[in-house]
Amino acid sequence: MADRPRFKLEFGGSVERKVGQAAIDPSTFRDLRNVNLFAGRMGVRKGLTRTQVLGFGDRVIAEHPLRGRAKLMVVTWNSTSGQAALYICDSDGSNSYQITGSLLDSAFAGDPQPRIVMADLYDRVFIAHDEPLYWRRSTTKIFSFATNTITDIFDTGFTDENGDEISPKFRGVARHLNYLVGWGWGTADDGDRGEVLRISGPGEPTVFDMRHYFLVGARGEPIIMCDPASDILLVKKNTDSYRLDGYDRQTFGIKPADPQFGQLVSKLSVSVGGVNYFWSHVGARRSVGQESVDLAVPLDLGGPPPDALVVSIDAETAFACYDPDEREVIFCFGQWAYVLHLAEEPVLKWSFRKYAIALYAGTISFSQAVANMEGVPTGTAVVFTGVTPDGFSSAYADYLEWWVETIGTFGPWDMIEFWVKESGGAWERANLVEAERAYSRQVRITGLQAGWTYDFAMRITRSAVPHASYTNPDPSLWPAASVVIGNVNAETVLLIAQYDMTGELIEWPPGWVWRDKLIYGTLEDMLVLAVEGLPNDSDHKVVWEAEVSDGVGGWTPVTAYVVTNGLSAFINSTPDHDAVNLEVTAFAGLTRDVRIRRTTALVTPITGWLNFAGVVFA
Amino acid sequence: MSQTPRLIVGRGGVGAILLRANGAAYTDDSVAYNASGKSNKVAPAGAGGECIFTVLYLTTTHFDVNVSLWITPLVDGVALTKQRLNLVGVPGTDGETQVHEIGLSIAHLASAVERLRYAPRGTWFQVLVETDAAVVGLGACIVSEVEVEHEIVRESKEAIAG
């Protein structure tokens, strides 16, 4: 008996209207769940592997990749308090650090999950709050790697064409060419303009010429999302779409793209290979900038989806993403997802996916095969040397200087953060310098209050991510080698032989027997010198003389004050073995050479001058 | 300089958790799930015809996993007795490809005693493939071919244009 004929069954195949005498019911949705489809085959999908738990919040609500940094920006949300936080992680989802600052200007307990739209440009991440209600919408924030902080409503970081600060409340932001595009905000006086599309200056994503904007479609119908599609920017409203053509201010223009279809919510779209896939009010569609194409035929949304999917759909928290490993576009609605398999393009196949857990955000992330770019810093420690305030109680400088040492191997993305906390105050990051390599260096922290006592701390970060031992928001809890707590005055403390920032020790007077403490700095119109450990002679009275010169004319005597224990007095004398400050007064803003000496002594007269060249009287 | 793209997703409910898609195991954040696939409906004799369906050939490729598959044939929407396939782990990455021959028959019972079996007869054929429980292992489990052997007993005839 001859073999009977066989008929091949495909999983998730396209609609085959007729194969021989066989007929395929075209209206039947092929119910595929938790599978990958490729080459006519069906494989059980691999699972989701936890990379880490982020400390703040109970839900991840937004992600954004940073290709150049090989990092992943992540927004978490606390559903109880309504507050959100920004994290920076490695591209594989490991290692994280919570960026200081608040994303939401105001949060209310019981709020619906906020939608966050992010874009990055020029090493900055722009973060928009996609809140339809204008009064609840937060100002657009900027995270900068140059400062490792988030801007706030008091310092937005945005300016208009005149350099005046503006406070945009964009519903969304996107990168287009070398412009930042923001939408949903008009002006300071007329902010709630959902149809307004603004474009930043070229290469200046924080500068918006207030005269440069487009009114997209009908007024009052807000722009939902902008995505790249082929070489244009696809501007989508709820039920219609537009295209931003052009490449600069002279050529930019808005044209209708699709008069019938738009996007449901901002997160339900993703662009892959120049094609934008988005979820419209009738289901999935795709566009290359012209009229969109319906993708719902193979998906057969009119057919019966799984019952659980119907009740679980929550478009407000849904999102779309692309899985590059399996070449799948995923429209995820909590625990359920519609998956469009692109592995056999132009044949498109669909499947359902029921995750074991509910998802709220997803994005493609990019690693970099560059040493020392990802991960945490490997530099092991930063230690202080020379920070030994020992009796110089008078504080006249508004800055601090100390020696630090970096140990280990560092990459170009490793930075040293310096933190200070004035007595009774809060920790603030004061400075950021490149770690570069392992060596000792001198660091100056400015802008401090003269005379206040400060705590210090430092750590190394790699693209803003510190080592795990340094993630505590309280720097005083970092490893002890990197922290100095208390009793450090905002007063320069360093060895003069190492000092070359505002002056230079040219000559050490012969016969002087100074000990190792001589410090100085400038404050306003004074050169402040501190001396201790005077020669152990029998004379307890030392009189000082100072002269200044502009380098052209001769030396001009100036007043030299000796200050002891914070009290300024014209006493012109110092007791033996005490720490004192000597002030040399000149005009503020001048640069002068300075020399000092003791002019009168009962024993061992001093004849030489101690010279400083190019002292800047600040 | 090369870049490796990957999908990172975030969950909620039990904390703000990041997860990598296409992980090593067949669990979502350690929670198991099942997979299933229901094929197209096919009518080898046409919508108005009728066949007997005799054998289902299922080709699988798997390695480094232990999984049981339930195979449920459906004729005209009626499920036949489902049958179980056990795929036991095979080391390596090439995997083992197996063709499973699954006889399609319906038992004829008389007083609860099976007297004979006969092939199902109908118009539309469909097959449902399900994992019995979570796939255990780090390898792959792929259903690559499904064919149904049939014999047409009554064909539908196409209309002839006059």
Provide structural commentary.
The complex is a heterodimer of chains A (618) and B (162). Chain A is mainly beta. In chain A, strands 36, 37, 39, 40 and 41 form a five-stranded antiparallel sheet that branches. Chain A has a five-stranded antiparallel sheet with strand order 42-51-50-45-46, with no helix packed on it. In chain A, strand 29 and strand 30 (293-294) form a beta hairpin. The longest helix of chain A is centred in the middle third of the chain and has 6 residues, at 307-312. Chain A is elongated and about 115 Å long. Chain B has strands at 5-11, 16-20, 27-28, 31-32, 36-38, 42-43, 50-75, 78-79, 83-87, 96-103, 106-110, 113-118, 121-122, 125-131, 136-154. The mean pLDDT of chain B is 88. In chain B, strands 5, 7, 8, 9, 10, 13, 14 and 15 form an eight-stranded antiparallel sheet that branches. Chain B contains no helices and 15 strands. The radius of gyration of chain B is 21 Å and the shape is elongated. In chain B, strand 3 and strand 4 form a beta hairpin. With 162 residues, chain B is mostly beta strands. The termini of chain B are far apart. Classes of the chains: A mainly beta (618), B mainly beta (162). At the A-B interface, strand 1, strand 3, strand 4, strand 6 and strand 7 of A face strand 1, strand 2, strand 3, strand 4 and strand 5 of B.
